[in-house]
Design goal:
By secondary structure, the chain is mainly alpha-helical. The protein has one domain (2-162). It is built from 5 helices and 2 strands; from the N terminus they run αααααββ. It has helices at 2-65, 68-72, 99-113, 121-127, 134-149; strands spanning 154-155, 161-162. A two-stranded antiparallel sheet has the order 1-2. A hairpin with a 5-residue loop joins strand 1 and strand 2 (161-162). Helix 4 (121-127) crosses helix 5 (134-149). The chain is elongated and about 90 Å long.
Length: 177
């Protein structure tokens, strides 16, 4: 009779060891996935910054070759994917920003209208439906800082972002960060 009870105990112990091994593997893979997501977001930000730098370079090269008639023409206020974030000034419409930036601005405007305080990048990411992963929050934080540096909203000393505009005295056209 003892051998009959011993067999299920042995199988249970083997199953327990296998479950623990699988749990350890899941934990390891979760860490690897998190690091890969962070790297992916960094590469996407790197690409965006490169596109912005190339756009600035192209604008500077075009400015040298344009005629005075072309310089007098009014600039288009339509957003161009990969374009730089223009400094905010009174009367500049939000529509000059690409849709991703407009959505970030919309979340902050909504939080102001409902009376909530400043939001952290992670909270904005959740509001936009991007989730709570650190990788998504870091990518969003980069975009939000860019908007704040150009006066589209405010960066609090706590690191949170709040609605409100602040004109930028000297636009830094060459910087993409």
């Amino acid at each position: 009779m003892a051998s009959v009870l011993g067999m299920p105990e042995e199988r249970e112990a083997a199953a327990r060891v296998r479950v623990e091994g699988l749990r350890e593997e899941v934990a390891r893979l979760t860490e690897v996935l998190g690091a890969a997501e962070i790297e992916l977001d960094r590469r996407a930000i790197e690409r965006e910054e490169l596109v912005e730098a190339l756009a600035v370079s192209a604008v500077e090269a075009t400015a040298v070759t344009t005629t005075e008639a072309e310089e007098d023409a009014a600039p288009s206020l339509a957003p161009v994917p990969g374009s730089t974030v223009p400094p905010w000034w009174e009367g500049l419409p939000v529509t000059v920003l690409v849709p991703d930036y407009q959505r970030i601005l919309g979340v902050l405007e909504q939080q102001r209208s409902t009376g909530h305080g400043p939001l952290r990048a992670k909270e904005i990411a959740v509001e936009l439906g991007l989730g709570e992963t650190p990788a998504k929050a870091e990518g969003l934080r980069s975009r939000a800082r860019r908007l704040a540096e150009r006066g589209w909203f405010l960066l609090e000393t706590s690191g949170a972002f709040s609605a409100g505009r602040q004109p930028v005295a000297a636009p830094d056209v060459g910087s993409s960060v």
